[in-house]
């Protein structure tokens, strides 16, 4: 940690490790493959950015063996593994899309070698050496997909004719088929329910022969090691034709053994058992934890003191010795030669690598060579937090709990003295899994943000501590570990989050139930919550696992299943709980998550549910990994770091169907009760016999409920039926029946002339805005980074972090994409968060999909013609996720905004005498930039500063600042300013995602020019953007046009530090379109504020009541509203300054004291004309009337109420420059700062009323001034 490190609270640090950077091009090497003939090296690489597919890559030239349409993966046992093998230049692999096995040579296309049957899954492929066209494999037959009917076999695949021959069947499971080098023997392991393979499995040996007709014969079958329910075996490997190596846990530890064929004796490879595990539970097929280099020299890995170690064994001498190794976790060990092995090596400070180890015998020093590193240099090594092991004894038996502690670390930051960090507790799955001290960038994602991460290795990773005790030992160990870390003063006990996945979801929720205040937030990913449902619906591989973990099947110990299920005690889960679930999960089906979410909500608990289509038990796709990480960070930050946050309320409704039909919730596939129905659509169910026929038809269908048959209502539809229904559901229900009205108006407003039906070929550009997943959390974040008393003050968020709050749920995104795709409409995202989608469709298609009639109307005042509709509809489920579709509805009323020209404040003769470049004069003779500098005590060095960052200004009606007038004005009022380096960029915003450049000498308007002159005359900023819309403020789409500008700015990684607008739109709380657009505009301003942007908006130019009242965006609580003052010998309030109270936005808490005091003073004034509980405005004020400037080459005092926000913007920019030269952040959202420090500003308590009285302190006319 250097002295240059910034001091910032834990949990608030900015990190270069973003979700996008973790998934964009990240790959994972999952296995090393060695050609058993050529000894050429290959490896399997998982690629999240390509949908999670797995590729075989040749190491020598780093070349894929097949193209993008292929995915080397298997779902045998659901967890897969061992999907490929290489023999003499030919790769054989299982393609997960159709489950067939293919062969491929370099430079050729894959060719299938198994029959076309996607119900057959293959794994553990092995070539018989003497018959290279015959593959041995595990086949898992899902022809009858119920777990009890799935059949596993060992088979032989004839790759020449695609025939399959059963070698052996009868056991419940098989793995590790290994033919001897001479092809005369075959070994494998097998096991039977209720065992898992690591609880009891048999090593089986047979004599093997192949006839001339390629018929496989096996004889002399015998079990040579292992015993059901008592002793497990794994990983057989032939060191020679006489020596079969394997692992066995006879001693209580998984140790190396050898079976000698000539003697028929199996024995351990050392005189005494070694107290280390040389193999782990086989959750995925193909574990490879050792390699035989010769018939006697073997290199093993084992677990010692929580990390992997190597050891070399001489079987003839019965000796072994540990080898020094820099790697903390070792996997996929394969022999390369008689002196070399290769493996995947993991370290605690480096990414995984394929490594070669060279050794010539026991006692010799090993040599390590990295053959392929996955380190990409994307992040600095200095940012890595290394794990620290901890071990705690647990009373009363003092059995140990192990944990890995990753301290918060980022070289850019250090925490305030004495502060403890927040912590994320991570629980492993299995529940027999474990954690290793290796570099995990997903952990560094947290530690680099100032969080501690603690991997808790609760009891059960080895030994039998979980036998009958799952839900007790693991829960108690987790609670004890957290309490130990807090008791030792390592982490902040009030700021702890916890995550459990799969089996540890049960541990996670169990701990929340037992200790209500254990943590402040929790996350469960595809977690177990209902043990009875797990027993009923889980897949074959684990269908009897609970017998061991809970002491028997539920029929014997029902009370155990019920009492240890979190769903039984959902009412006790008081901690905010985020639940994420893959919708294709066959291990923990989605119904579990859906049910506990419902139960928690029913008792008023805080929970949020996010689902991912196309994901099973674990995340493979880049977008899922990113969204899950962002969601968890957002959830934890909101509930722990942003203590004032309130949970965003879910608006998800339960779909329902008609009374006379079978009722299914089509998201969960569960029957739903008739008491919670809402019309959704007609589904008719046929019955079980029609399932396969229906699934095979790619056309709309009806499913008719069978009379008297209720079984279908209580069972989960088969996967093929589910897929078929999802594929056809949108087209099945008539459009008018499945759509619900999302928004409508009762009549066309009188300000419009109806021209008739719109041209059906006319294209419409429409924007869909989906509800953000956590806008309340973002608002809490805005207040945290903007409150000077907050420890997070100034710690603004970056674009990616903001997007994580704004991004819609994956369910919403999936629903809208599915709906529009079914209508032949393609969407284009117009926001990086994905909440804005744009489509261009003809009127004819829009009429159909929105179930409406678009008409052409003309706004009389502006003569603008637009195509709009009186209502529009959306699918029922999607409507709840949709904020708005725009522009469709016309505003309900429109009145003109008058550009106010003020009466002269000095006589013409007096004006002629004014020295407009005299910085020493006051403003009583006329308002010039010189008098502004004097009045507001603007330092003389402002013009000499070199500001940091950009400034943006908004301009309506196509008004463009005119370069010649800018230059002439500045030459007169600021003759010492050099304009040459100043850059003004014009950006025309014609609509969503419609941006173009504009020439600075194009058609121009005096208002835009005056804004630039005012700003530059005070602060000659080098980079100004003017965002222009052709929209007239008097027209129908004012708020929409302004929103397009703000969204355009938000789309950039680099946003301006200050945004000013002297243009505004009148509020109309009776207009549903305006209300929604105004809220979207305020949400955009919220996003900008959290990114450190100050948004300054003119409060209006027609007083409080003479125009149309409150103005947007001034009324947004997260914008700073700027009123207008003028001069009358002294600075005074001006009658046409906008002000008052919003009709849409409630009053923010930072205003409470100031506004309540004003309301007490004015009593019944204007009673009934405003809502006193709503947002008051303006917040600040400045001169804005009759400023001097040049128009069309002529200088004059211009009677436009425009420049006040520019004066504030110039000063804020100056202050930002001062702060940033001192290493501080930009001011950002300033309202909390100014309301907390009113005495730092001038209080204008005199002048004309704008409809509200002008008083000391806050008032609804001008408020605080510079």
UniProtKB/TrEMBL annotation:
InterPro entries tied to this protein: AB_hydrolase_fold, Peptidase_S8/S53_dom_sf, Peptidase_S9_cat, S53_propep, Sedolisin_dom, Xaa-Pro_dipeptidyl-ppase/CocE
Compartments, as annotated in UniProt: Secreted, Extracellular space
TM stretches of this protein: none
Binding site for Ca(2+): 1243-1244, 1257, 1259
Gene Ontology CC terms: extracellular region
Gene3D superfamilies: alpha/beta hydrolase, Peptidase S8/S53 domain
One BP annotation, GO: proteolysis
UniProt keyword Nucleotide-binding, yes or no: no
Region (Disordered): 883-919
Record-annotated Peptidase S53 domain positions: 926-1266
Superkingdom to which the source organism belongs: Eukaryota
Gene Ontology MF, one: serine-type endopeptidase activity
CC cofactor: Ca(2+)
Keyword Acetylation: no
The protein's name: Peptidase S53 domain-containing protein
């Amino acid at each position: 940690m250097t002295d240059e490190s910034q001091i910032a609270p834990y949990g608030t640090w900015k990190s270069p490790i973003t979700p996008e950077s973790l998934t964009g091009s990240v790959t994972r090497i999952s296995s090393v493959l060695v050609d058993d003939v050529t000894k050429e090296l290959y490896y399997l690489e998982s690629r999240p950015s390509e949908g999670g597919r797995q590729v075989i890559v040749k190491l020598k030239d780093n070349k894929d063996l097949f193209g993008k349409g292929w995915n080397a993966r298997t779902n045998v046992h659901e967890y897969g593994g061992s999907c490929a093998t290489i023999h003499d230049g030919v790769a054989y692999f299982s393609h997960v899309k159709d489950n067939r096995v293919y062969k491929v040579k370099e430079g050729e296309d894959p060719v299938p070698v198994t029959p076309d049957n996607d119900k057959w899954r293959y794994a553990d492929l092995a070539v018989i050496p003497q018959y290279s066209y015959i593959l041995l494999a595990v086949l898992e037959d899902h022809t009858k997909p119920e777990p009890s009917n799935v059949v596993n076999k060992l088979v032989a695949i004839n790759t020449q004719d695609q025939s399959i021959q059963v070698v052996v069947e009868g056991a419940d499971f098989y793995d590790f088929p290994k033919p001897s080098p001479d092809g005369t023997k075959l070994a494998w392991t097998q096991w039977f329910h209720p065992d898992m393979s690591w609880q009891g499995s048999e090593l089986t040996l047979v004599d093997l022969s192949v006839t001339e007709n390629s018929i496989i014969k096996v004889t002399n079958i015998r079990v040579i090691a292992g015993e059901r329910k008592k002793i497990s075996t794994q990983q057989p490997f032939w060191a020679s034709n006489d020596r079969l190596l394997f692992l066995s846990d006879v001693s209580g530890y998984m140790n190396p053994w050898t079976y000698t064929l000539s003697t028929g004796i199996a024995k351990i490879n050392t005189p005494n058992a070694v107290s280390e595990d040389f193999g782990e539970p086989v959750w995925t097929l193909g574990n490879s934890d050792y390699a035989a280099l010769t018939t006697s020299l073997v290199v093993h890995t084992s677990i010692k003191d929580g990390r992997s170690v190597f050891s070399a064994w001489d079987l003839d001498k019965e000796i072994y010795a540990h080898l020094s190794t820099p790697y903390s976790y070792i996997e996929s060990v394969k022999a390369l030669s008689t002196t070399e092995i290769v493996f995947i090596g993991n370290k605690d400070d480096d990414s995984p690598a394929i490594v070669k180890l060279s050794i010539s015998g026991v006692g010799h020093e090993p040599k390590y060579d990295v053959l392929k590193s996955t380190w990409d240099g994307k992040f600095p090594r200095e940012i890595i937090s290394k794990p620290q092991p901890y071990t705690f004894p647990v009373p009363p038996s003092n059995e140990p709990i192990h944990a890995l502690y990753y301290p918060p670390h980022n070289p850019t930051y250090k925490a305030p003295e004495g502060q403890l960090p927040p912590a994320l507790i991570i629980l492993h799955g299995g529940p027999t899994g474990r954690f290793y001290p290796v570099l995990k960038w997903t952990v560094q994602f947290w530690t680099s943000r100032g969080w501690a991460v603690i991997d808790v290795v609760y009891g059960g990773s080895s030994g039998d501590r979980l036998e009958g005790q799952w839900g007790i030992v693991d829960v108690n160990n987790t609670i004890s570990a957290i309490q130990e870390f807090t008791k030792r003063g390592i982490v902040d006990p009030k700021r702890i989050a916890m995550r459990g996945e799969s089996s540890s979801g049960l541990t996670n929720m169990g701990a929340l139930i037992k200790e209500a205040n254990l943590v402040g937030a929790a996350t469960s990913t595809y977690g177990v919550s209902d043990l009875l449902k797990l027993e009923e619906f889980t897949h074959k591989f684990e269908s009897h696992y609970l017998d061991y973990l809970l002491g028997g099947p539920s029929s014997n110990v029902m009370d155990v299943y019920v009492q240890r299920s979190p769903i039984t005690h959902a009412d006790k889960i008081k901690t905010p709980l985020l639940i994420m679930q893959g919708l294709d999960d066959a291990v923990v089906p989605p119904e579990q998550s859906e049910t506990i979410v419902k139960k928690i909500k029913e008792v008023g608990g805080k929970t949020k549910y996010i689902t991912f289509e196309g994901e099973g038990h674990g995340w493979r796709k880049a977008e899922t990994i990113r969204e899950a990480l962002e969601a968890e960070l957002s959830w934890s930050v909101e509930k722990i770091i942003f203590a004032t946050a309130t949970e965003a309320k879910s608006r998800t409704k339960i779909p329902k169907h008609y009374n006379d039909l079978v009722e299914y919730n089509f998201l969960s596939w569960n029957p739903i009760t008739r008491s919670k129905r809402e019309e959704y659509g007609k589904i008719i169910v046929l019955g079980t016999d029609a399932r396969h026929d229906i699934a095979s038809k790619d056309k709309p269908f009806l499913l008719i409920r069978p009379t008297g048959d209720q079984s279908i209502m209580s069972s989960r539809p088969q996967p093929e039926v589910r897929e078929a229904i999802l594929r056809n559901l949108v087209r099945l229900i008539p459009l008018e029946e499945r759509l619900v009205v999302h928004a409508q108006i009762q009549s066309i407003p009188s300000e419009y002339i109806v021209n008739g039906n719109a041209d059906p070929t006319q294209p419409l550009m429409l924007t869909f805005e989906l509800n953000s997943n956590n806008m309340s959390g973002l608002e809490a974040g805005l207040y945290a980074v903007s409150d000077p008393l907050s420890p997070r003050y100034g710690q603004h968020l970056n674009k990616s972090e903001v997007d994580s709050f704004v991004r819609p749920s994956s369910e919403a995104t999936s629903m809208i994409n599915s709906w529009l795709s079914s209508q032949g409409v393609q969407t284009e995202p117009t926001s990086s968060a994905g909440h804005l989608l744009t489509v261009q469709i003809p009127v004819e298609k829009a009429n159909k999909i929105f179930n409406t009639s678009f008409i052409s109307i003309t706004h009389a005042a502006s003569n603008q013609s637009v195509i709009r509709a009186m209502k529009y509809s959306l699918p029922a489920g999607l409507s709840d996720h949709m904020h708005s579709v725009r522009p469709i509805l016309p505003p309900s009323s429109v009145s003109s905004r008058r550009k106010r020209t003020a009466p002269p404040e000095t006589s013409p003769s007096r004006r002629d005498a004014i020295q407009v470049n005299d910085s020493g004069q006051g403003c009583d003779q006329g308002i010039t930039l010189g008098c502004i500098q004097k009045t507001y005590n603007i330092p003389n060095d402002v013009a000499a500063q070199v500001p940091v960052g950009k400034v943006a200004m908004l301009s309506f009606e196509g008004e463009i600042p005119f370069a010649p007038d800018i230059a002439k004005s500045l030459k007169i009022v600021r003759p010492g300013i050099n304009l040459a380096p100043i850059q003004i960029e014009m950006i025309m915003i014609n609509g969503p995602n419609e941006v173009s450049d504009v020439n600075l000498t194009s058609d121009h308007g005096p208002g835009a020019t005056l804004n630039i002159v005012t700003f530059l005359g005070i602060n000659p900023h080098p980079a100004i953007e003017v965002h222009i819309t052709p929209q007239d403020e008097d027209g129908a789409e004012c708020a929409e046009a302004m929103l397009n500008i703000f969204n355009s700015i938000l789309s950039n990684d680099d946003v301006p530090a200050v945004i000013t607008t002297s243009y505004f739109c009148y509020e109309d709380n009776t207009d549903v379109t305006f209300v929604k657009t105004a809220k979207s505009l305020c949400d955009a301003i919220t996003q900008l504020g959290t990114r450190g942007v100050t948004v300054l908006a003119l409060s209006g130019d027609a007083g409080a009541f003479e125009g149309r009242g409150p103005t947007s965006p001034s009324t947004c609580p997260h914008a700073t509203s700027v009123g207008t003052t003028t001069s009358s010998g002294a600075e005074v309030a001006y009658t046409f300054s906008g002000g008052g109270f919003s009709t849409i936005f409630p009053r923010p808490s930072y205003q409470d004291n100031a506004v309540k005091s004003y309301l007490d003073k004015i009593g019944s004034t204007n009673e009934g004309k405003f809502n006193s509980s709503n947002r008051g405005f303006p917040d600040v004020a400045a001169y804005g009337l009759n400023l001097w400037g040049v128009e069309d080459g002529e200088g004059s005092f211009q009677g436009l109420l425009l420049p006040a926000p520019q004066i504030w913007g110039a000063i804020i920019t100056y202050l930002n420059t001062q702060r940033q030269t001192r290493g501080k952040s930009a001011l950002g959202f300033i309202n909390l700062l100014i309301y907390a420090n009113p005495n730092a500003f001038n209080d204008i308590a005199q002048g004309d009323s704008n409809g509200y009285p002008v008083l000391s302190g806050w008032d609804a006319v001008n408020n605080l001034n510079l």
